[in-house]
Every structure is written in structure tokens, then in C-alpha cells.
Design brief:
Number of strands: 9
Bound molecules: N-carbamoyl-L-aspartate
Shape: globular
Helix content: 25-40%
Order of helices and strands: HEHEHEHEHEHEHEHEHHEH
Number of helices: 11
Strand content: 5-15%
Length: about 300
């Protein structure tokens, strides 16, 4: 049972609990009208200490489409945070009003601190360069709905693997399936953090390679997970400018890929996927964004213990 639980990182749910969420998301996609009153009378708080479009909107749209209501802020300077309130006090106060909360914060571990200060379910919507588990639910649902299964796939992660929290969460989540291989495509400066390499990949005996060339990697992949270079986490602008356009996926490069490969991107995109790729049937990033709302509907219902 997921009722009352938190989602702070991808491993918080077992594989069968994830399946339950994906099955419910599939049912909601099939028959959304059936769920329009599922969360009547319930309130979701969205506490966003960092900018967001998709994640906040998709959570808010998810709750509204379930008949629930929302409160929250997207600009911490307009809340008591600006007066110096601690995360623990903010969440304890929010718990007086809401049934569950979603938090995005620039500091790693902030949603965990919040979760430890309340009995209300807390969902991590991205903490610094660390984890982003609900983006992972979105990514996994999209892979499941297009490729059917997670076992025996080769996943290429390309771009900013150092600061890209969505990649860290995705690798962690996929490491539990059978025979998943990774091709990690990045410039030297943006390679995945040591803790992901050692504690997730090597420790679990997962096959992976770290390469520079996207062209070389493309023919092997079943999933290409593109990412934006995370400008806001760089210490100096020069490095960002030098690295931001290292990889640009365009039509000629798509010719090197398998016919059934899918292209995912958590969005927002900057330059890393040329707009011309959008019309390729393998480009799944906008479908993925839509799946994000449905999987969050399933997550909200599950944490509130609402059957569907
Ligand atoms: C991602 C994030 O916030 O980490 N965006 C999102 O939630 N869809 C990716 C990014 O900002 O590059």
C-alpha cells in the first residue's frame, strides 16, 4: 500500500508498487472521465523554491483533473520563506491545510528534511543536482508504453550527466531491471558523478560505457535520453558557453539510429534537439510530458489511498 508514503527518491517504491502506479496511469489515460471526482475535497500544496514549468503545471493539472484543489507558491520570495522560515516550519504549517505536498528545492535533501518533519506525504519534485523521482516515473511510463518492457534495453544518456538530476534518478531506477545497458555520452567535464558510477552501476554489475561521440553510440540504442546542460548549476559562465552545444541531435544523426529507438527529453530543451526532429515518429518528448501528468494523477491517488 502506498497510502501515506513519501516519494523522495526512485528506490522508495518497490518494482511491484511502481507497476501498480503505471497500471493505474494506463487506466486513467484510457478513461480519464472516470477519475474526474477521484480527489474531490482533497488539497495538494506545491512548494516550488526553484523555477519549473512542466513539473509544477503537471502536478497542478493532475490534481485539478482529479477534482482536487491546489495551493502553493512558485516564487519563494512571496512566502514566509523570505522572512527566514525553516523548511521544517513551512511544511508543518502547510500540513495544517493540505493533504499532500510537492517540493522542489535547489538544496539536495531539502524534501527529505521536509518529509521528516510531518506525517503528510511529501513528494520530491527535484532537489538540486540530486534526484527527480517523478520525472523518472514519467520516463519509465513512457518507455513501458512505447517499448512494452524495461528488460534487455540499451539506454543512451546524453549531455549533462553531472548536474542532470533526471539522469541520476533514471539510472538508479533502471538499475533494478534485467540486463539494462547504459551508454553514457558526455564531455569529460560533465561525466556522471562518481557515486552513480560506483554505488549504482559498478555495485550492481550493470554493463555501461562512457563515450564522447553521439554518432558512435546511436546505432546501439533503444532509448536516447537527451538532456540540457544545466546552466544554473555551473560556477562560471565561460564553461557553460563552451559546453552547451556539445551535442545537437538533428535529422542526419537520427538516420544512424534504430527504426524503433525512442528519443526522450525531460524538457525544457535549449539547443540539444533540433526542432526538425520533432516530426520524427521516434521523438517522444511531448508525449512524455503528457504522460507526466497522468502518472502524477496515479501517484497522487495512490499516496492518498484512493482506489482506482
Ligand atoms: C528537469 C529538471 O527540472 O531537472 N525538468 C523537468 O522537471 N522536466 C530537467 C531540466 O531542467 O533540464
Amino acid at each position: 500500500m502506498l497510502k501515506g508514503r513519501n516519494l523522495l527518491e526512485p528506490m522508495d517504491f518497490s518494482l511491484s508498487e511502481l507497476e501498480e502506479i503505471f497500471d493505474l496511469a494506463d487506466r486513467i489515460i484510457e478513461e480519464p472521465a472516470k477519475y474526474v471526482h477521484a480527489c474531490d475535497g482533497k488539497l495538494l500544496a506545491t512548494l516550488f523554491y526553484e523555477p519549473s514549468t512542466r513539473t509544477r503545471f503537471s502536478f497542478e493539472a493532475a490534481m485539478l483533473r482529479l477534482g482536487g484543489q491546489i495551493i502553493g507558491f512558485s516564487e519563494p520570495n512571496s512566502s514566509s520563506v523570505a522572512k527566514g522560515e525553516s523548511i521544517a516550519d513551512t511544511i508543518k504549517t502547510v500540513a495544517c491545510y493540505a493533504d499532500l505536498a510537492v517540493m522542489r528545492h535547489p538544496k539536495e535533501g531539502a524534501p527529505k528534511v521536509a518529509a521528516h518533519s510531518t506525517d503528510m506525504p511529501v513528494i520530491n519534485a527535484g532537489d538540486g543536482g540530486h534526484q527527480h523521482p517523478t520525472q523518472t516515473l514519467t520516463d519509465l511510463l513512457t518507455i513501458r508504453r512505447t517499448l512494452g518492457d524495461f528488460d534487455n534495453i540499451t539506454v543512451g544518456c546524453c549531455g549533462d550527466l553531472k548536474f542532470g538530476r533526471t539522469v541520476h534518478s533514471l539510472i538508479k531506477a533502471l538499475s533494478r531491471y534485467k540486463n539494462v545497458k547504459f551508454v553514457l555520452i558526455s564531455p569529460e567535464e560533465l561525466r556522471i558523478p562518481e557515486y552513480v558510477r560506483k554505488e549504482i552501476l559498478i555495485k550492481n554489475g550493470i554493463e555501461f560505457e562512457e563515450v564522447r561521440s553521439m554518432q558512435e553510440a546511436l546505432p546501439k540504442l533503444d532509448v536516447l535520453y537527451m538532456t540540457r546542460v544545466q546552466k544554473e548549476r555551473f560556477f562560471n559562465e565561460e564553461d557553460y558557453i563552451r559546453l552547451k552545444d556539445t551535442y545537437i541531435l538533428d535529422k542526419p544523426k537520427m538516420k544512424l539510429a534504430k527504426e524503433k529507438m525512442i528519443v526522450l527529453h525531460p524538457l525544457p530543451r535549449v539547443n540539444e534537439i533540433a526542432v526538425e526532429v520533432d516530426e520524427d515518429p521516434r521523438a517522444m518528448y511531448f508525449v512524455q510530458a503528457k504522460n507526466g501528468m497522468f502518472v502524477r494523477m496515479a501517484l497522487i491517488m495512490s499516496l492518498l489511498g484512493i482506489e482506482g
